[in-house]
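Posting for a labmate who doesn't have an account.
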Amino acid sequence: MVALGGLSLSATGIRAGLAVRGPLPMAAMTGTLAGVGSFLVLWLIRRLRPLRDLERWQREMVRGWTVTDAAAVAVFSGLAEEALVRALLQPLIGLIPAAAVFAILHLVPDRRLWVWPILALVLGLVLGGVYELGGYPAAAIAHAVINSLSLVRLQRLSED
């Protein structure tokens, strides 16, 4: 709601803020590949100690969720965060500051989880680059893919 309100007050409006850059199929492919690639990198480094702590905490967070719950949270959070951070803030403050805001949004009070905002900063730079290439749809797809693959994987692990 904040993103839509902010975009409605901008000179270009909501439609321009959420617009695709280039052909939609190319933006969708860019977002999908960036999302799958980012997930695979996270999966490959998941055994590093700080990431194991983060995964353990996240598994507890999704315990009791269904696959549908995980997918819904993944998609809606990806759409909303990209509207706020990429479509609204990035054009105003730039890629690096927007990625920093994205990292701050992922701060948690548990010091053992210090790696989450660092991962969010890196992923914020990736998502910001995807936004520059394909616009909001590409970044939203990438974010939703990362979240969906991650949350469904965590939900399945939490059942064990």
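Reply:
Got it, the structure tokens are right above this. The chain has a mean pLDDT of 94.
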